[in-house]
Amino acid sequence: MIKEKLKIIPLGGLGEIGKNMTAVEYGEDILVIDAGLMFPDEEMLGVDLLIPDISYLLEHKSKVRGIVITHAHEDHIGALPYVLPQLNVPIHCTKLAKGLISVKLKERKILSQTKFNVVAPGGHFNAGRFTVELFPVCHSIPDAVGLIIRTPVGTIVHTGDFKLDYTPVSGPPTDLSRLAQVGSQGVLLLMADSTYAELPGYTPSEQVVGQAIDHIITNAPGRVLVTTFASLISRMQQIIDAAARHDRRVFVIGRSMSDNVRIASDLGYLKLPPGVMGRVEELSRTPHDKVVVLTTGSQGEPTSGLVRIASRVNPHLSIMPGDTVIISASPIPGNESLVNRTVDNLFKQGAQVFYGSRTQAHVHGHASQEELKLVLNLTKPKYFMPVHGEYRHLTLHAKLAQSLGMPDAYTFVLEDGDVLELNSAGGKVGTKVSADNVYVDGMSVGDVNSAILHNRRMLSRDGIVVLSVAINKHSGKLVGRPGIVSRGFVDAAEARELLNAGCDLVADLLGRCDIHSVTSGFIDNEIKNALDKYFYDKTKRRPIILPVQMHV
Amino acid sequence: MIKEKLKIIPLGGLGEIGKNMTAVEYGEDILVIDAGLMFPDEEMLGVDLLIPDISYLLEHKSKVRGIVITHAHEDHIGALPYVLPQLNVPIHCTKLAKGLISVKLKERKILSQTKFNVVAPGGHFNAGRFTVELFPVCHSIPDAVGLIIRTPVGTIVHTGDFKLDYTPVSGPPTDLSRLAQVGSQGVLLLMADSTYAELPGYTPSEQVVGQAIDHIITNAPGRVLVTTFASLISRMQQIIDAAARHDRRVFVIGRSMSDNVRIASDLGYLKLPPGVMGRVEELSRTPHDKVVVLTTGSQGEPTSGLVRIASRVNPHLSIMPGDTVIISASPIPGNESLVNRTVDNLFKQGAQVFYGSRTQAHVHGHASQEELKLVLNLTKPKYFMPVHGEYRHLTLHAKLAQSLGMPDAYTFVLEDGDVLELNSAGGKVGTKVSADNVYVDGMSVGDVNSAILHNRRMLSRDGIVVLSVAINKHSGKLVGRPGIVSRGFVDAAEARELLNAGCDLVADLLGRCDIHSVTSGFIDNEIKNALDKYFYDKTKRRPIILPVQMHV
């Protein structure tokens, strides 16, 4: 009997879609799976991005043997530039992942000190007491893998992000045979992608999209613009192939799309038929029925290719009647209105727009319920832990496992920071470790706290009023008249009277009081409150009141 | 030949879902259709709501004969409290609409001076040269109507918000026979609801929902909580009837829900079986399998019934395993994450949650493509103008009409403020009138402008730094040391050094310069820019820098 416990510690990615990171710990060894980022929701004002809290890893820094990356999406690699300088361990990943990660590390000037171990899908590596095999899975980026982790306590299978797709456009299908083999040898724990656990049935093959896009291009009278995720290499391949079939040339607009076309074709993941790619400078003199434009902006991002085109600020291309636009992506939750606004703008300029789920111009990259059942069925795990998803996705995935006969007590719906402890005697959830949101804002990581966000929220609602008061430091008397300036509260010109009345109120209160009571506290409390009440009564708005005192 | 033109002027509701208002003008008469509000999007920081711009109506105030209301949803009646005091004209509407509008006008203390003309569905009224018939339509509120407006130039049909539903739960179905009759007599212009013009097929009957909810209640082991829109009276009726069938009592939690249950049952739109309604105080001592709770919060609104229950702050009810929650509504675009968060919270506390489109616990209230085609087919209009929808909805609706043989030139996809001019010779779009967004923020209507919103946006991103400088008014010299305080920029305690260095920089710049150059302009430009650059270099954040000068 093995007494030493195997610990599974989700540090990000449970209860949220994004910033995936999981630590697997046994004895003196920790292996980290993924290091992703997440974009802030609308309440995290001014925050650029969120990364996992790695304080647990830093406390046990000497144990950390490396980071294995399942695939090169931002929500799995985006935190590397922030955590690598603190952890300084090797990265184990496939070839394309290394290419895409390197670009980011180079930008942050930490590429040269990073050690990569490139592992081919099907290959393996050792990290302390762990032996890790990478098995190929289908996902919306090439070279994605799941993990088979051999530990002294038993075997862990981690699917990474995946779907099945028996007919992928490029690369191998998800290796179900290998999963069946491992399953027959005995799997201690399955961790599986829950992102689409709400969806019944099967996720369609990427091939479906190729046919839909080909059909639209066949019938398009003029230029065809297609936008998709810049990392969706197989989608780009289908678009480029369709263009070639219809004797059209492909023009790429958008920085991340151009970068990825270059990296993916250099590394052999994207095949460019000779002569198909055009330079954007040639676009204006190419006949419209010979043009396909591949561009960024599938999420309506304000500075992206398609949005700039839709706003008529791209120097090479303006929409005109006869143009066809295909949005080959679904909006990530929260981006719906940005995407809708872009579609509206394109329609206004006379384009024919194909968007939304009914055009079949997009399929997503995650397994639906029947696929999840199949993986549970093949791997036959003793314990099950749904990963990647908000709480309802994890819950529904756990219920799905239970509907296949998995006992409730062997199913673990965890939150970030929970510690799942497994040994041959059983599994239990131990003491929580720190797994807070870490905010990146501008240059700094982690200094934005809830007080700053609270202030930004207050400022965003009703603005700020700055009250300036000069006090004679000898007599304690008010010098001159108090000043009031505001930002984001009222129109200063229109509301001059209101602001002046506020000054009068303060001057009156300060004038009436005993000289010795004009203390900082009096201004910061009584005066501030009086002004707050006055403005609220007059406007029903509640700006931050910031008194500034000068002792002169 | 009639030379005088009939003008159709959308003042709100085109290019947006909400704040519906259309003016119909002929000679000396203007009839206004609806007066709705819209909730702000996330960029309109601090704004409470948006209403239509009525400056055109105010310019032609003497012509305005009245406002006709198609149904009592906020996006059709919510602007009445703001526009009625300025226009002071009678409201023509059905009985339930009068009841729900009266509550709002009473709150604003303008009920007594408002003149209502209650018209039954099927009835009509005169307004200047217009004769207006109200015909019954099905929608997600009882007593909804469309309009048949007879004008000297011809007949206008306006559908209002509608779907068909041959088996409505209460009230009559949409009066297709009347539409066919009017169509055979000749319709000049059809204005029809485009909200769901993206959706193929037919919208299911409200009956479907009743069966789904009944099925869930039948199988629920404990309490059942159902949330829906407070104005969806027929849904409440189905829930109350299902509760009665299963020998459960109904408890209402949430102010707008309680208000509407009272008004709707007083006016006869909601039938309460004897003994079925319970008082919330009795909830804790009622056996769980005898309880149905009807509550607000279907959009995840932070102060609503369900959200407070999910956050464990409702005094009468806390979620426990065995509870079942039904979200009988779909999220309005923009509300997805609030709803998701609520569902996650309920799952965490052990509830079984039915949500989303796959549970059939909700059908929407607008016509899908086949229904829209049917209405076009029956009314056979000469001209067609899609209404109610964002630009893509209007465009798709117009394309739908064109697919039925309507000539492109007779289809008008307009934006707010466009003027459609019709006479017997033809139709054209004339000079635009003012139709901007009017923001309501706190007490005031229309004073929030783009400069204020821009400032709020800046403040929300990186906060504010207030620089205070005292200048001797005689010598022009700096008095004491400059002061810096910030809000929402950095943590003041952690970043003391940074803020101090900012003060040093300012003191240094002011100290070095010629006394006579310490002008307001110098501080507002050079000093402000230097500080902005310094903070950006150090933090990559760009707070608003607000210099405050005191001449002492």
Could you give a quick summary of the protein structure above?
The first copy, chain A, has about 550 residues and is an alpha/beta fold. Helices cover about 30% and strands about 25% of the residues of chain A.
Offer a few descriptive terms.
homodimer, alpha/beta, globular, 31% helix, 552 residues
Q: What does this entry look like structurally?
A:
- Two copies of one chain form a homodimer.
- In chain A, helix 10 (336-348) links the parallel strand 17 (324-327) and strand 18.
- The longest helix of chain A is centred in the last third of the chain and has 20 residues, at 520-539.
- The first copy, chain A, has an eight-stranded mixed β-sheet with strand order 7-6-5-3-2-1-20-21. In chain A, strands 8-9-10-11-12-19 form a six-stranded mixed β-sheet.
- Chain A is of the alpha/beta class and 552 residues long.
- Chains A and B meet through helix 10, helix 12, helix 13, strand 24 and strand 25 of A and helix 10, helix 12, helix 13, strand 24 and strand 25 of B.
* Gyration radius of chain A, rounded: 29 Å
Strand content of chain A: 15-25%
Instruction: Provide a count of the helices of chain A.
Output: 15
CA-based shape of chain A: globular
* Assembly classification: homodimer
The count of strands of chain A amounts to: 26
| Major sheet summary line of chain A | 8 strands, mixed
Strand order of the largest sheet of chain A: 7-6-5-3-2-1-20-21
**Helix content estimate of chain A:** 25-40%
**Straight-line distance between termini of chain A:** 77 Å
Largest interface, counted with CB-CB under 8 A?
A-B, 69 and 69 residues
Structural class of chain A: alpha/beta
Poorly predicted sequence stretches spanning 5 or more consecutive residues of chain A: none
Mean pLDDT of chain A: 94
